[in-house]
Structure formats: C-alpha cells, structure tokens
Design a protein that fits this description.
By secondary structure, the chain is an alpha+beta fold. It has six helices and 17 strands. Bound molecules: pyridoxal-5'-phosphate. Pyridoxal-5'-phosphate binds next to helix 5.
Length: 339
Amino acid sequence: MSTIDWKNLPFGYLKTNCNLRAHCKDGKWGDLEVHTSDEISLSIASSALHYGQECFEGMKAFRGKDGKIRIFRLEENAKRMQQSAEGIMMQPVPIELFMEACKKVVLLNQEFVPPFESGASLYFRPFLIGTGPQVGVAPSKDYTFIVFVTPVGPYSKTGFNPIDMQLVRDMDRAAPLGTGQFKVGGNYASSLRASERAKKEGFNLVLFADAAERKYIDEAGPANFFAIKGNKYITPQSESILKSITNMSLRQIATDLGMEVEQRPVLITELADFDEVGACGTAAVIMPVKKIVDRESGKTYEYGKDGKAGAISTKLYETLRAIQYGETEDKHHWNTLIE
Ligand SMILES: *Cc1c(COP(=O)(O)O)cnc(C)c1O
C-alpha cells in the first residue's frame, strides 16, 4: 500500500481489503464472514431504513514505534454497543463476537494501519442494523453486524489547535429521557440542522444546552464537553449525553495526574469561570476551545492565550496519545495488542 499518502490522509473513507459481518436470525448469531465488497444488499422494508434501528461504534488502532498495533479500549466499545442496541430494542452483539471481529479485521487489513511517524491511525466503524422487513412499527427480528476499517488522518486539518463553538438553545439534539445516551444514527440526524447552521455561521462545533431547562451544558456536537478550573477536571452529568470513552479515559488520567474530577450538571453561567475548555472524543481525542459564543445573547467566552491550547488540556492530550501509541506505560490495560 505504498500509494497511500499517510501524512495527508483526510478523516474520510478509503476502501480496504475486507470487512467482517455476522447475521442474527431469530435471536441466534451466525459465524463471522469476511467480505471483500463494501456494499450490502438489504430489504427495502428493513427497520434500519424506516424506523432508525441503527447503532454504531467508533474506535481506533495505532501502530507504535515498536511496530506493534494496539486497539484502544476495545472492550469498552463492545460494552457500549450492547447498551446502544438495547436502548433501541436491537439484538445486542455478544462482547466476544464484537472483539473477535475487530481483532480479525485489523489482521486482515494490516497494511492499512498507518506508520507510527504519520500521526495517522486506523479507524474502526462497527455497526448494527435491523435488517428484517418491518412495515408496522416494531423492532426487527433480524440483524446484521458489520465492522469495517479505514485509515484516517487527524480529525481536524489544523491539528491540536483551538476551535470556536456556538452555544444554542433553539434546537436540541436529544430529549432528556430519550436516546441521547445511546450511539445511534438517529441522534446524528437530529443534530445535523444545528451543526450545519453553526458551520455556516463560522463555528467548528455546536454546543447544546440541556433540553429541559436550557440552563446547563449538554453535548458538544459529536463530542463530550469538559472544562478545567484550577486543579479540577469538570464534565457534565446528564441523561442525554453519550458516555464518551475518551472522556472516561481523560477522567482517569486527570485523577492519575493528581487532579480533582467533577462529573455533575454544569451551568452555562459557569462558562465565565473556566480556565480551559475542550471537546473530547475518539476522532480528535481533544479539541481545545478558544471561544464560545452564545447564539441567543451574543455573549462571548474566551479561553487560552494567543489562540493556543491550555497547558492542562495539552498535558491530558499528550498523555492519552502516548498510551495509544505505546510510548508510555498502559497501567490501566486500555490497549489490546494485535500480534
Ligand atoms: C461517539 C460520541 C462521542 C465520543 O465518544 P468516544 O467514545 O470518546 O469516541 C461523544 N458524543 C457523541 C454524541 C458521540 O456519538
């Protein structure tokens, strides 16, 4: 695969050797299948197409300086996909099947794992769809689980550079007791209007207020929100945000670094008191934030000096990256080594 320009990879899709699939019929999972085609054949009446029975995961594998490939937090992603599946009445994928599929798909696509020096990685997209024909509203009886991989460059072309956010109150991503905590395609459909408007108005990310009272900070578009205040790592507690595994890892790293971690409802008015603000997720690990504009009031909050990321966000980012690339001790056993 010497034709791939590793240093200029976009965060996009590139066809690889193969993807892995398994089908569930009447509650029974079949064996893993290797497919070289990247297309699927589906009933025109399948529940994924009409009633949104689709959930997915996103995780990454990294090639270290030692040449070894490490998948970051494989088991946590497997567990979360089960929760998402149950959240929209789909047949959950057994943890072992999920993990086996992910390990196998890397082995069969090894030449697509970017070299260490490139700063790129291999992105996994495991997903589950209801495939049974369903015209009346009900969960499908049949499901298909697929995992494909694609090499990706950094999420943002500008690298670890601070971004601008737009706080909105006139559109919601998820209802307080809805499906916001599950990684389902439907949540993305409902967030697109706000995020595209934010982009049109010159912002990188939208920041949603809580849908019930619009007093608290909820989800940062496709990422979790966090803030640093003194020696504290602060992140919202909410029923409608996705439980980011990056956020979970950053909380542990913050604790390891001797910081205090607060997971609690975060008032919008607190934005004025934070030293650093960021959005976190698998794609970028951390997107440091330099400015948040409240779309309703025009009030602006600014962070960092000279448009640079804060020292603590930088430290958290570098520590997590070092674990992913096998450059520092993986003391919490987050990596699955592929050999
Ligand atoms: C996937 C996702 C995140 C980030 O989760 P990670 O496990 O850290 O990748 C955050 N918010 C939303 C809405 C997501 O879909």
